[in-house]
Amino acid sequence: xxxxxxxxxxxxxxxxxxxxxxxxxxxxxxxxxxxxxxxxxxxxxxxxxxxxxxxxxxxxxxxxxxxxxxxxxxxxxxxxxxxxxxxxxxxxxxxxxxxxxxxxxxxxxxxxxxxxxxxxxxxxxxxxxxxxxxxxxxxxxxxxxxxxxxxxxxxxxxxxxxxxxxxxxxxxxxxxxxxxxxxxxxxxxxxxxxxxxxxxxxxxxxxxxxxxxxxxxxxxxxxxxxxxxxxxxxxxxxxxxxxxx
Length: 245
Hints:
The protein is an alpha/beta fold. It has helices at about 45-50, 90, 95-100, 105-110, 130-140, 160-175, 185-190, 225-245, and strands at about 5-15, 20-30, 35, 60-65, 75, 145-150, 180, 195-200, 205-210.
């Protein structure tokens, strides 16, 4: 299977002396959906930013199978980070504008995230869930092969979060991006992912790599299944062991 990204002995120590990551070895297959979970401050977001090329590792190497730029990766942050003075269409077109690419796909990206009719709306006129949909549209407008998501739904209410989880899975199944998803929610990670990577407290390292074997597509009813609860419990136990070690 082709790997989208491979990390070999990757470490990160900041100039303050804080050691964020001890050696991390991790390979993520192209087209897969992988979630990173771990305690606050364990280096999940740092690892994601190094995969994106926004931070350099202090040691080790990262081999990426995509080219730089918006057609290689899309990044969705915890905050929607929309420009308040620009409407949805302008916000979504930003990566294309920066890269000097045509804006032909803006309307399509807006439609794919369920924001038809809101292209001319401003962020202040949107709900939190709608702002996050706009942020996802901006990340996918250039049709990247990899989508990196850093706790994108953490600030949303549970109902909105579930709906966006369902919609994200549908988008992934239709496009088969490689998705690397950071979350504090074990249930979210298990519902979305083919693999859940459990990380230790800082300096972060991989302590468990757990396949999630539920078939795709996944229905919302899976969240109420005993088998789903059992898998969540196993991931939670691995996380608890990591925190106690």
